[in-house]
Amino acid sequence: LGHCLGSNHDGDKNMCHSSDRYIMSDGSYPETESNVLHPWRFSSCSSNYMLDLLKSLETNNIILQGCLINAIGSIKTGDNTLSASQQCKAFYGVQSYVCRGAGIPSFDKLCDEFYCKMPGTTSCERMIAATSTCCGNKKKCIQGQCVDAGQGQCPMNDKCPLGDQEGEIVENMSCSQLHSGFCYQNDVYLKCCDTCEK
User: Fold this and answer.
1) pLDDT, tens digit, for every residue of 128-177?
2) What span, in angstroms and rounded, lies between the C-alpha atoms of 61 and 68?
3) SS3 66
4) Cα-to-chain-centroid distance, residue 22
5) Which of 144, 117, 122, 121 is nearest to 133 (CA)?
6) pLDDT surpassing 80 at residue 70
7) Which residue ranges does the record assign to the Peptidase M12B domain (predicted)?
8) Which of 3, 52, 87, 151 has a C-alpha 20 to 30 A away from that of 43?
C-alpha cells in the first residue's frame, strides 16, 4: 500500500530511519520502548510521500484538504479474527506453520512477533501479528497489545494456545505419533503441548 501511494522505504532518499520500525521500514529491527507501536503506523516521511501523491492527483487542493481533514473515526475490524497459523499459511503457503520451541519467543510476545516456518527449509521467518490476531483465551492483538476480544472470539486453551505444531517433530513422527515419554523433553512439550496434556 505504501509503495502504491508513492512512499519509499524509510531511509531511502529521506530523513527517516528504518530502525524506527514504521510500516515502510526496509527490514526487521529491535524493538525499543519508543518504537513498540510503530509497525502499525506510517512514518512522517511516508505520510509526506502519500500526501504529495494525493495532491498531485487532485487539481482542487481545497477538496483534497477537506477530505483529509474531515476523515474522522477509526478502522473497524468487526468480528473478524485470525490465527497466527492462518497468517503463516497466507504469507508462505499451506505448508507453513507457527514455529515453537527453544529459542522462539514465548506466546505472550505474540502480538509483537511470532515466527513462521519457511517451507522447504529449516528456518523460521519473523512476522508481526496483524490486528485481531488471537493471542490468548478470549483475547486478540490490537496495535501490538493483547486485549480482551469480543464475546465468543478467540476461544483458546491457555495451556496450549497454538495447539500442536504441524509436521515432523522427532524422528519423522508428528505430535500424535510420539510416545508420551517425549513430552518430558521441554522442546517437544512446547511443540506438542496439546497432545502432551492429554
Assistant:
1) 888 888 888 888 888 888 888 888 888 888 788 888 888 888 888 999 99
2) 11
3) helix
4) 14
5) 144
6) no
7) 1-66
8) 87
List b or e across 126-142, with b for residues whose CB sees 16 or more CB atoms inside 10 angstroms.
Answer: ebbbbbbbbbbeebbbb
In whole angstroms, give the CA distance from residue 132 to residue 129: 8
Classify domain 79-161 at the CATH topology level.
Answer: YefM-like fold (3.40.1620)
What is the spatial distance between Cα 96 and Cα 93, in angstroms, rounded to a whole number?
A: 6
CA distance 112 to 135: 10
C-alpha separations of 17 from 14, 24, 59, 90, 151 in Å: 8, 10, 32, 29, 40
Write phi, then psi, for 91 (nearest 5 degrees). -85, -40
Categorize the per-residue pLDDT at 3 as very low, low, confident or very high, splitting at 50, 70 and 90.
confident
| Amino acid present at 37 | L
Q: Could you tell me the pTM of the whole model?
A: 0.59
CA distance 190 to 83: 18
Residues of the chain with CATH 3.40.1620.60: 79-161
Contact 85, 92 (CB under 8 A): no
Which position has the grid cell 488471537? Answer: 134
DSSP string, 99-119: --STTSPPGGGTTT-EEEE-T
